[in-house]
Design brief:
Blueprint (H helix, E strand, L loop, with lengths): L11 E11 L2 E4 L11 H8 L3 E4 L6 H16 L8 E5 L10 H9 L6 E4 L5 H14 L5 E9 L17 E11 L8 E4 L7 E3 L3 H5 L13 E3 L1 H23 L8 E4 L4 H10 L7 E2 L3 H4 L6 H12 L7 E8 L3 E8 L2
Parallel strand pairs: 4-5, 4-6, 11-12, 11-13
Antiparallel strand pairs: 1-7, 2-3, 6-7, 8-14, 9-10, 13-14
The protein binds oxa(dethia)-CoA (UT7).
Length: 337
Amino acid sequence: MIVMSSTPTAPHAAILGIGSYRASIEVPNAEIVDAIDSSDEWIQQRSGIRARRFASPEETIQVMSVGAARKALEHAGVEAVDIDCVIVATVSHLMQTPAIATAIAHELGTDKAPAFDISAACAGFCHGIALASDLVRGGTAGKVLVIGVERLSDITDLTDRGTAFIFADGAGAAVVGASDRPGISPVVWGSDGEQFDLIRQREDWRDVVGSDEHPGSGVMPHLTMQGNPVFRWASFTMAKVANEALAKAGITADDLDVFVPHQANMRIIDAMARSMKLPEHVRIARDIAEQGNTSAASIPLALDAMIASGEARSGDLALLIAFGAGLAYAAQVVVVP
Ligand code: UT7
């Protein structure tokens, strides 16, 4: 029997560098409340958000991604030409095809690296890290660039009470490569399609365009969210997933240094921390207060901020957990680069 040659594999994968791009326009609650008959006090109490950041017209998905990626490459000490695969997690690239990842890879100068987008909404970055880890360990790629990026301001109706105060823009990136120690634990991930409708684009493109019998709306199909069921699902179910991720990594909450949950709502973050009984010493990401909910970008933005402030140090163990539309979720423990 002829035996095909196989790719040499890597024993372990790790995040080698992180970078982020914060959108330039700070939008405090005061600028949002009139259109949705709300108040700064209500928004802060219910979500913990004081301000969010929106991208300027020049800060496209590509511009923010390239900005975050260049910082991640620098942090990792890796040249763009050495990247073997680019994965972009986003739901707000407004062109159905091609994937924005190919344009980003080209602008970075990755020398024709395979590049594709993934759609797992707020869970996208953690999905990307899981894929990157397996690509590296399986020998398919030496170094993978994972980007989480959103311009949710493009697809948020600023007169919708349920979403206008939450969503925001930004980008974060990580370089994943081979390591002699485990740096990314096995992922715990899943989906609950029974709750498909809880967060979604209001209508599909055919409904926007319409037909002779059914005239289209002709307006941007914004995001809609049934916030309270999502809130309850996230607060109760996600702590269990987080504990499973710790178990799969072979550690307990006591071993953790940093907790970086998806920045969806400060009350969800607190509920998870309580439910997991996180010890006092675990530093918790609370980037949402000034950044808003940036979906796929929220975890790398939050982790990068903690590295910059010294709250997360190289070698720390960090639990990442992300959840959102789908409903989709993913969690893993990583060693902070
Ligand atoms: O990133 C993807 C995953 N997304 C999430 O995880 C988001 C999860 N959901 C949430 O974060 C929360 O559900 C929200 C922050 C969106 C809303 O908080 P809530 O505590 O679930 O509020 P609610 O929808 O249950 O509404 C409570 C009250 C209602 O009034 P009554 O019926 O109690 O009189 C609403 O009409 O607050 C009212 N309300 C508002 N009031 C002022 C709803 N929206 C607003 C508003 N401003 N924007």
